[in-house]
Design a protein that fits this description.
The protein is an alpha+beta fold and about 120 residues long. It has one domain: RNA polymerase II/Efflux pump adaptor protein, barrel-sandwich hybrid domain (OB fold (Dihydrolipoamide Acetyltransferase, E2P), Beta Barrel). Helices cover about 20% and strands about 35% of the residues. The strands form two sheets. Strands 1-2-3-9-8-5 form a six-stranded antiparallel sheet. About 30% of the residues are buried.
Length: about 120
């Protein structure tokens, strides 16, 4: 698993990358009340805005961590955004992306580096 400075996690799964936000990010946002996910089949470039997330404290955009195609979104989050607060590192993933350049993953932190980053 890799981590971005924007508090996203990326977990390889076969030839896809599963993307969500970290526990730290969920805690900082507070109670999440709304999520807008991208359309499946959307081609995205690194740093494109792909998810809108709103909490009782703030609204945030989640950026695409890598180039690729969104192949699956977690519709459960649209129905119940609070799941992000309950399990941000597990069942509350946002989308799965088929990377066009998997080497972009090399730019991100491992778990130990991320722990230092947020300390």
């Amino acid at each position: 698993m890799k981590f971005t400075e924007e508090h996203e996690w990326l977990r390889p799964e076969d030839d896809l990358i599963v993307v969500g936000i970290t526990e730290h990010a969920a805690e900082q946002l507070g109670d999440i009340v709304f999520v807008e996910l991208p359309e499946e089949g959307t081609e995205v470039a690194k740093d494109d805005e792909v998810v809108v997330i709103e909490s009782v404290k703030a609204a945030s955009d989640i950026l695409a961590p890598i180039d690729g195609e969104i192949v699956e979104v977690n519709e459960v989050l649209v129905e119940d955004p609070s799941k992000i607060n309950d399990d941000p590192m597990g069942d509350a993933w946002f989308f799965k992306i088929k990377p066009s350049d998997p080497s972009q993953m090399d730019d991100y932190m491992d778990e130990a580096a991320y722990a230092k980053f947020i300390a």
